[in-house]
Amino acid sequence: MNRLIKTIVALAAIFTALVPSFAKKQATHKVITANVRITGLEADEVPGLRWDDRKEICKNVILAGKPDLICLQEVIYDSWNYFKKEFKGYQGFGFEGPEMDPWTEGYHFIGKNCIFYKKSRYEFVSAGSYWLSEDPVIAGSISWNSARARHCNWLRLRDKKTGEEFRVISIHLDHISDEARQEQTKFFIKEAAQYQEDFPQILCGDFNSGRKNLPYQDLRAAGWIETWEQVHGEIEYGFTAHGFKADTKKKPGRRIDFIFTKGPVETLSSEVITDHPKGIYPSDHYFLISEVKFTK
C-alpha cells in the first residue's frame, strides 16, 4: 500500500510539473484586424451604409470570430462609445488622449486605431501611442506629405495562464502619399526594433498598399511575416477594401489590410471575413482573422 501511495504521489508530481509547459505549448491567440469605416460621411447617408444601419452587424461579425484581440482602425467618438459598451468582457485602449482636432462630434479627420483585449485572459503590462511623423510625440503632427495625421497604438500584455508576454499594435498608413506610407513604415520598423528578436509582436492594420509595394517589402526585409502568406503562400486573395460593393474577391485586386508577426510566432490559420448579413456589409473593408501561437 505504501509503495502504491508513493507511486501515485510521484505521478501526480510529474503531471503537475508538466501542466504549465503543456498549457503554454497549446495556448493560441485569435486576433482580428478591422477597419470599421469613419462614420458621418456624406457619401454614407444611404440605407445600409449609415453607421446606425451597420453598427450591430459590425459588432456581430467581429465577435462571431471569438477573438482574443481586436485591432480597429478609423474609430471616432460614436463608434468608440458603441464598441466600449458592446464588446462585453473586453478592455479597450487607444482612443482617449491627445486629439487631432478640438471637435467631439462628426468627422474632422480624427480616426483612432484602438485595441480591445479579453480581460479574463490577459493582464495589462504597458501601452503607448505615437504619431507617424518626424515629431512622434506631437499629437496630429504630419510629415512626408501625408494627407492626414497618422498614428500607432500598442499594448504589451501578459497571458494570465501561461505567463507569456507579447505586444500587439494597430496602425493605419496614409491613403494618398506613397512617400508617407514608406516613411511611416520605416518609422514603425525602427520603433519596433527596440524589442528583442525573441519577443513576440503582432502588427495589425490598414496599409493602403499591397504586397508589391515598399511598405510590405520593407516589413518583410525587417523580419515581419504576414499571417495570410504564411498559411496560404504567395497568392493574392483579392480586394480587402471593397467599397461596400458586391463580393470582389474573385476579381483582380489586392489586400491592403494585414496581420504581421515578428519573433517566435507561428500562424495556425488566417482568413478574410466576408460576412454581410442581410446584404449589409459591416464596413467598406473586409476584416481579417488569424490564429497564432508563440513558439519560444
Describe this structure in words.
- The termini are far apart.
- The protein is built from 6 helices and 12 strands.
- Helices cover 26% and strands 26% of the residues.
- The strands form 2 sheets. It has a 6-stranded mixed sheet with strand order 3-4-2-1-12-11.
- The protein is of the alpha+beta class and 296 residues long.
- Helix 4 packs parallel to helix 5.
- The protein is globular and about 50 Å long.
Q: Point out poorly predicted stretches.
A: 13-24
> Between the first and last Cα atoms, what is the distance in angstroms?
42 Å
What's the β-strand tally? 12
Determine Rg (CA atoms, Å): 21 Å
Content-based structural category: alpha+beta
* Average pLDDT taken over every residue: 89
The major beta sheet can be summarized as: 6 strands, mixed
Which short descriptors sum up this protein?
26% helix; 296 residues; alpha+beta; single chain; 6-stranded mixed β-sheet
Short overview:
26% of the residues lie in helices and 26% in strands. By secondary structure, it is of the alpha+beta class.
